[in-house]
Amino acid sequence: MAKQYKHVVLGGGNAAGYFAREWVARNGAKGELAIIGDEPYVSYERPALSKAYLFPEAPARLPGFHSCVGGGGERQLPEFYAQHGIDYLTNTKVTAVDVATKQLTTASGDSITYDKLVVATGARPSTLVDFKTPGADLKGVHYLRNVADADALIAAIADCKAAGGKAVAIGGGYIGLECAAALALNGLDVTMVFPEDRFMARLFTPDIAAFYEQFYAGKGIKIVKGDVVSSLEGADGKVTAAVLKGGAKLEANLVLVGVGARPNTELFAGQLELLAGPPGGIKTDEHLRTSNPDVYAIGDVAAFPLKLTGVTTRQEHVTCCRQTAAHAAAELLGESKPFDYQPFFYSRVFNLSWQFYGLSEGEVVQFGDVSAGKFGAFWVQGGKVVGAFLESGSPEENAAIKKVAQAQPAAPADLAQQGLAFALAA
Ligand code: FAD
Ligand code: NAD
């Protein structure tokens, strides 16, 4: 017989934990909720995996970073869910969904029915197999999305050290930057390769990127820009080298790939309205409701209208996953209002830490002293400050740039000279 639940969250990842937090805050121990995920753990803070989890000294491990510790909440262990009447089905992969009959089928053939479904299936790494790169399936080629990947990467770091210590990190985005730093901290000889002309090209200006690139070079990390890996070579099934399109060959005992992520939407193809990709995702309205009124989408998989711009957007970032989760829980429990999200991106590598709030659109006005490592930038569009970036901000300074990006004040002519003082005074 099918298991029946009033509410089901499909995908037991980061967003699911925050959904449960809000659910419990509003609904107490009434339960009426199941969370179904294919990982062996209840929800955890995924950002820890590319940072403290990989530290050579005192690394983070579960249960230390279960949700919602990253968002200032309780560390929700399996008991938390049980105590509040929430059935958390771990190790349970859903292989089919029928939104017409409101039924899920699991890999073991069980059926689960729901009244309301919240899709939180997240995203998965794009792979070199997707790119049809020869040698993509060699041992020693790694991705990072979950604890199993992180454990495999840690074992690979040890193997790499024993084999010669040469690592290649592919990608100049979040994973490439954070993992290259972690691999270097582990004593590996790291070379980064990416097709753009600078680090984090979608956000960083050339000057901002140059600061981080020099910092990485100072840590011994080599950087190959404007090139891609055309094939991987191996011996005895293990990777030994990365061959670049430009002709260079890099010795590699470990290859870490961070070439973007794809939303897990396949279960809903032909059933829910999807956003043509990239970025792809399950389209929602301003209440995070999909094209089926009994199905909501949250976290990395949700493509929702950003109130600021009216444009349907998908954000692969943890603050968005936390806020979409809390919002959908409130909607399902009767509090309906448009979801209003301020884009927020951040990263921490070595002893550096940056934050960005708002929109990276328009003209960039930089401020501060790049050589001293304390600098930032405002994005100005239509005469208004719409985005703000800051490296090494104090909590007060970060709060100030957040506020200014939200308020969108008129940009004064001497914005560059005023710099951070403008945000602090706004
Ligand atoms: P996920 O957390 O990916 O959860 C989705 C879950 O659904 C997974 O457990 C998946 O296995 C499961 N699932 C999928 N399909 C099925 C199925 N058919 N059946 C059952 N289960 C299924 N963001 C930041 O803002 N700052 C950071 O510093 C940061 N660091 C990150 C570091 C790493 C290594 C990664 C991978 C991401 C990082 N992010 C960061 C992004 C952030 O972690 C994501 O935005 C967040 O995890 C999204 O939550 P989610 O629940 O939507 O997806
Ligand atoms: P990303 O989108 O940040 O970066 C992808 C990078 O792939 C691009 O910058 C580009 O350099 C590279 N690339 C694309 N095609 C390539 C090719 N053919 N060869 C070599 N490089 C190529 O994605 P990611 O870094 O893989 O991160 C994956 C997911 O994890 C994203 O959802 C990201 O938001 C999330 N994440 C976020 C953080 C954070 O917010 N601090 C940290 C880690 C991971």
Description of the structure:
This protein has 3 domains: 3-124 and 262-332, FAD/NAD(P)-binding domain (3-Layer(bba) Sandwich); 141-259, FAD/NAD(P)-binding domain; 351-425, 2-Layer Sandwich (Enolase-like, domain 1). The chain is of the alpha/beta class and 426 residues long. The strands form 6 sheets. Strands 1, 2, 3, 4, 5, 6 and 18 form a 7-stranded mixed sheet that branches. A 5-stranded parallel sheet has the order 8-15-9-10-11, covered by helices on one side. A 5-stranded antiparallel sheet has the order 21-22-25-24-23. The model has no long low-confidence stretch (mean pLDDT 97). The chain is 23% helix and 29% strand. Bound molecules: flavin-adenine dinucleotide (FAD) and nicotinamide-adenine-dinucleotide. Residues 50, 123, 131, 170-176, 178, 194-196, 228, 258-261, 316-317, 345-347 line the site of nicotinamide-adenine-dinucleotide. InterPro entries: FAD-oxidoreductase/Apoptosis, FAD/NAD-bd_sf, FAD/NAD-binding_dom, FAD/NAD-linked_Rdtase_dimer_sf, MDHAR3-like_C. Residues 343-423 form the Monodehydroascorbate reductase 3-like C-terminal domain. Its EC number is 1.6.5.4. Keywords: FAD, Flavoprotein, NAD, Oxidoreductase.
What does this entry show, briefly?
With 426 residues, this protein is of the alpha/beta class.
Name a few traits of the molecule.
426 residues; binds nicotinamide-adenine-dinucleotide; alpha/beta; seven-stranded mixed β-sheet; globular; five-stranded parallel β-sheet; oxidoreductase; binds flavin-adenine dinucleotide; FAD; 3 domains; Enolase-like, domain 1; 23% helix; FAD/NAD-linked_Rdtase_dimer_sf; FAD/NAD(P)-binding domain; monodehydroascorbate reductase (NADH) activity; monodehydroascorbate reductase (NADH)
